[in-house]
Structures are given as C-alpha cells and as structure tokens.
C-alpha cells in the first residue's frame, strides 16, 4: 500500500498522474493498455503542439504497431525527471536539455531534426545596419538582448564567441533577457538594445510578421559555430527491439507526405536523420567554456 502511494505521489509531482496506471504493469510496453509516453513542450502554441503530437502518435502507431500516448510537459526539467523514473519513454528535446538528460539519466539520442536542409544550425549576432558597429570588439559596453537563458543559439554560443574576443557579457555589457528570439530582435529594431542574439535567420519570421524592412535595416555582425539540432531521445531502459521500432518508424514517417506535414506543424521540422551522443559534445564544450553546469542552467531556464 505504501509503495503504491509513493509511486502515485511521484507521478503527481511530475505532472503525469494520467499516465500512471498500476494495472498497466501486466501488459508489455507499447500495448494499448500500457502505451509508450512521448513528451513534448509547448515551444510554440500549446494547442498546436497538442494537436500535432496526437497526429504524430497516431501515425507512429501505424508504422510500428505500438501504442503511444502524447504528453505535453510544462518544462524540459519535468521531462528529464519523468524519463528518470520511466514515466516518459520518448522525448523531443533541444540540445541543452538532451545533454542534461543523457548525463543525468543515460537517456539516448536516436534522431536529429532537419531544418533548412541541415541537422545543424547557427546563432547570429545582429546589429542595426547604421549602428557603426563593425566588429565584436565594438560591442564592449553595449546593451545586448539574449533570447533566453537556456538558448544555445540565442545565448550560450554567442556568449562564448564574445568571450573569445575578450568581452565578458556579464561584466562588460548591459544584458536584457528578451524571452524569445523574436522579442530580442524587436528590441533591437525599436532601439531598446544595441545588439541581439538569435538563431540564423530569425529575421525572416519577423519579416513576414510585418517588419518588412528588417533585412535592410539590420545586419549580421557574426555567426556562431554550428550547433547540433533538436532531437528525439529514448530512455536507456527500453529494450533494443523497441528502440529499433521507434527509430525506424519515425524515419519512415518523416519520408511520408502526411508525416512530413505533421512534423512541420509540430516544430517546423523538415526531416529526421540518425544521431549519436557524440554529436552533442560541442554543446558540452560550449558550457564548459562558460564555466557553467548544464543541469543548473537547464533548471534555471525552466
């Protein structure tokens, strides 16, 4: 009785009470009565992620003959903690959250997403075209907008680039945490900051949203090195057959017309390619260069 109570409290704390069913233990994982839980976070509109997640789960079930239950989590930390106790089995994670999940739980990346034809992307440092800022060295003492604290392209990678040029953002600049890539660029255009950091090229989204001259009035000062893209990670406890079915099913789904549309609707994903943990070593090196702790950084960002 005490064991059941504790398990129920764990599930409740993780926000996954609806996924916890003691009777499911008598059915194999992936059975209709014991589905694989696939977690997402609402990095775009929550309703859109829920709808797309449900469609993805249904399509993947067709490909694999397994059953999946989509779960919309409130944060990446809650997903990693749920994976640690087997309440989430499949997760869609950004680079920093994946490294945290792997280093904490041993969770395994199997696929990377493709956007703009590549499984990597870059960060960019943007200034106004008429600012007179010609080099990274000119940024000392300026006001900078970082996208958010846990963004690889909108914070960590640009911060490392600044440090490599002798600028410590915390000591040498006035920092604004914009909350998103779009918001940082808007702050730049409106004159609230002198420089903004975002993914390459976040300006295109704003151009279609009404900032029609943003490509002419702003300028890319510098690009970061390549960053490994978001990924699909599985808990280490899954047996090899389940891992193979899920991975192969997602790859097949990404090749289908319907699957491509669902992935695009979900997170603007063009495709999926195989991935390995070593692909994310540059993220670990970047965090080490900033003398940061990955778990602490991910927790602070949630």
Give me the number of helical elements: 13
Question: Could you tell me the radius of gyration in angstroms?
Answer: 21 Å
Annotation, overall tally of beta strands: 13
CATH first level of the largest domain: Alpha Beta
Strand order of the largest sheet: 2-1-3-12-4-13
Order of helices and strands: HEHEHEHEEEEHHEHEHHEEEHHEHH
CATH superfamily of the largest domain, please? Periplasmic binding protein-like II
CATH architecture assignment of the largest domain: 3-Layer(aba) Sandwich
> Strand share of the residues?
15-25%
Largest β-sheet summary: 6 strands, mixed
What share of residues is helical? 40-55%
User: Which class best fits the helix and strand makeup?
Assistant: alpha/beta
Molecular structure report:
With 302 residues, the protein is of the alpha/beta class. It has two domains: 2-118 and 228-301, Periplasmic binding protein-like II (D-Maltodextrin-Binding Protein, domain 2, 3-Layer(aba) Sandwich); 123-225, Periplasmic binding protein-like II (D-Maltodextrin-Binding Protein, domain 2, 3-Layer(aba) Sandwich), CATH 3.40.190. Helix content is 43%, strand content 19%. It contains 13 helices and 13 strands. The chain has helices at 2-13, 46-64, 76-84, 95-105, 152-164, 169-172, 181-189, 203-208, 214-217, 240-255, 257-267, 281-289, 294-301, and strands spanning 36-40, 68-72, 90-93, 108-114, 120-121, 123-128, 143-146, 174-177, 195-199, 218-223, 227-228, 231-234, 271-274. A six-stranded mixed beta sheet has the order 2-1-3-12-4-13, with helices on both faces. Strands 8-7-9-6-10 form a five-stranded mixed beta sheet. The longest helix has 19 residues, at 46-64. The protein is elongated and about 65 Å long.
